[in-house]
Amino acid sequence: MAAGNQDMPASETNPEGAQALGEDRARAFQQEPPERSANFYDSLRDAGLTALLAGVLGFFFIGLRTEIAPGGLDITTRWRAWIISILIVFGARLFLNIFLFRAKRSTRRKARAEGGGFAAIMPTVGKILTWLLLAFAIVLPFFFTTFMPTRERQFIDMAILIMTYIMLGWGLNIVVGLAGLLDLGYVAFYAVGAYSFALLAHYFHFGFWMALPLAGILAATWGVILGFPVLRLRGDYLAIVTLAFGEIVRVVLLNWYSFTNGPDGISGIPKPTVFGYELGRGQDTINGILGIPYEPIQRFIFLYYIIFILALITNFITIRLRRLPIGRAWEALREDEIACRSLGINTRNTKLTAFAIGAMFGGFAGSFFATRQGFVSPESFTFLESAIILSIVVLGGLGSQLGVVIAAVVMIGGTEMLRNLDFLKSIFGDNFDPVQYRMLIFGLAMVIIMVWKPRGLIATRTPSAIYKEKKRISADLVAQGEGH
Amino acid sequence: MHYFVQQLINGLTLGSIYGLIAIGYTMVYGIIGMINFAHGDIFMVGSFVALATFLILTTVFGFAFLPVVLLIVVIVAMIFTAAWGWTVERLAYRPLRGSFRLAPLITAIGMSITLQNFVQVTQGARVKPLPPQITGGIKIFSASPTDGINVQLSYMQIIIIGTTLVLMAAFTLFIVKTPLGRAQRACEQDTRMASLLGVNVDRTISLTFVMGAALAAVAGLMFLLLYGVIDFYIGFLAGVKAFTAAVLGGIGSLPGAMLGGLAIGLIEVFWSAYFTVEYKDVAAFSILAIVLIFLPSGLLGRPEVEKV
Predict the structure, then answer these.
(1) What is the pLDDT of residues B27-73, one digit of tens each?
(2) Which residues are CB-contacts of A139 (< 8 A; sequence separation ≥ 6)?
(3) Cβ neighbours of A436 in B, within 8 Å
């Protein structure tokens, strides 16, 4: 919120090398101008202006509150909260001005810092981190049952949730990250998968394992059906039509009462079985046969491993597909559609397979969601879900598999952790409920991470085609989500 | 027939509101080529500011003369909502200018979530009802013997359609005649060239957001007066509909935004009137998809020519 920050930057620096062109340069110019942190007085003035703006913005929202009172609406005032919010903004801005924006770094030094040093060791760090995460994911349920036996259930449940989002992120990554098709309605396929299983179980008494492939196939079919009309669209037109499809699917599920049970949803969806035997007490269960005493936590561990393996399959197939002609065609399509066509790639089939395969994984995740909840309703498949999945993909760094994992853990795990912050009640009083602020913090985190790292948390890519030696390339060189 | 005319009037009213919001989308898209997802929530913020101002004026200060009250409300709502629009642009979009295309889209979605939840946390999740303020209307046709339906044009509808027409006219003149409008058109064509020729691009973009937010505030007030119920979630659906309208009309085109808004409003109202009210959103979205299949750049949009 700068007062004197409106001068258009002049082109005066010469970039080091071609890669600093374009985006990097444009971004570097957008950094805070150096004179703003010149002295303390300026910082103070700037913080004052920011606080003034915060006061203006907060006046009608923090300062006043409309309440429903007998005989209409009433308005109450909260001047104390309003003044505190202004002071917080003032303090935060002053702090940022003095300590963060002070560092005067030239474009050239910045480019060097980004290019060398940490980036050079990134591939190794990334590889080690991948294996560490994988090892941790394998032992995760036992880690929690051993070290946190009191809250194991909650943590494993959270791990299942995060893993579901990782799988969805990887599925969407095929469409957005590899094929470059901006899809804002991915949740439609998640919903198709969940409802396929729910309806198959409801009407035909299918079990999870039988319904799982069918759900994937149905979702892939819907991917093709929805993908077909939008083949000619590009960019934001594609985005809005996919968003519209997502909403159409939800509205149909909501209103087709005789078939989907409308807003009441479908309950009583069976749990997954182990080779035809259920988990539970008694002779006829897997516990009875193997002679293991039943504990409720086993159900969670079993679900965790199902989604973990499903996610690993997604990841594995994606990695392998990238090396097949179809995967290369996706990436070529992302980079340049016209060049693609000139080289004889069938863009229609390329786009449709991307939609279909992305949708198929969405469908798998959906039917897992249905069996985990035991209940589906249209409420679970709003646009917000699509936005969350897309934000995980973009925040992690489009096209990066590890990035999706990190972003899912940070965003979903971070906001879920807010449910555990009961100690804050002792500070802010009993009326304070951190869960209330969950989505507010989620939204702010999306903005802050994106502004901080516009290319996502993992900003290097492995090229899929290799000539002589394997080189890491910067994400800046990759066209992403341009939606051709 | 009378039923048809009545629905036509209702559709035009709803379409006017969508059109006003759609202008904000289409202007921003024209200049910086991004979907400002938070615009629907700016509309919601506008309606909350309007509600609070209205309550202050009527209950605290005790003004009773409605035209003056509404005039003050509209001005206050426009100013404060414009401040919100400016802040959103400054916080979430300006640091990402020149970045790759999906980054501002994600910050826009993040801002949208933030604004919704900010209003939910500070103002509560319950709906805020406001009793109808402007009542009465003009009877155009009295009940016909065939369907027994009056065709009525309420004063509220006259105000909404009239305000929209006036704002559209003023806005078009503004874009065509004033230096700022010229700067906006220049930025729309070529940002870099405009900046080389001395146009302050950042300021122009900020002012575009400010104007879009001000129009959304007017739409927010009209929504509040027409429906009498607002909550923190109205921005999402209205935003999606308005964006659909902008795309339908051809994004980047001002008359297109208005035309698209009217089209979406009419489709919704007629679908609800003649078929089922549940599937009105499906109807609007399906028509969008069908139109885009045959006209991939919307009704009035210029087709994109890609050079190799």
Answers:
(1) 888 888 888 889 999 999 999 999 999 988 888 888 878 888 999 99
(2) none
(3) 121
Distance spanning both ends of chain B, measured CA to CA: 54
Asked if B96 reaches chain A (Cβ–Cβ under 8 Å), the answer is yes
Select from A5, A11, A23, A447 the residue whose CB has the most chain B CBs within 10 Å, as the one to mutate to test that interface.
A447
Distance CA A394, CA B8 (A): 43
CB-based contact, B152 to chain A, within 8 Å: no
Q: Tell me: pLDDT of A452 over 50.
A: yes
Contact A180, A173 (CB under 8 A): no
Domain ranges (residues) in chain B: 2-294
Check A73 against B278: CB less than 8 A apart.
no
> Is residue A267 helix, strand or coil?
strand
Q: pLDDT for A44-70, tens place per residue?
A: 888 889 899 998 898 888 888 888 877
pTM score, two decimals?
A: 0.84
The top-level CATH class assigned to A122-477 is mainly alpha
Which stretches within chain B are classed as H helix? Answer: 2-32, 39-55, 66-88, 102-123, 155-177, 179-189, 191-196, 201-227, 234-249, 254-274, 280-294
Q: Cβ(A299)–Cβ(A445) under 8 Å?
A: no
**Phi and psi based region of residue B198 (left: phi greater than 0; alpha: psi -120 to 50; beta: remaining):** left
Q: Contact A243/B236, CB-based, under 8 Å?
A: no
d(CA B80, CA B295): 38
Q: What class does CATH assign to B2-294?
A: mainly alpha
A255 inside 8 A of chain B by CB: yes
- Report CB contact under 8 Å: A450, B247: no
Is the CB of residue A230 less than 8 Å away from at least one CB of chain B? yes
Domains in chain A: boundaries: 32-104, 122-477
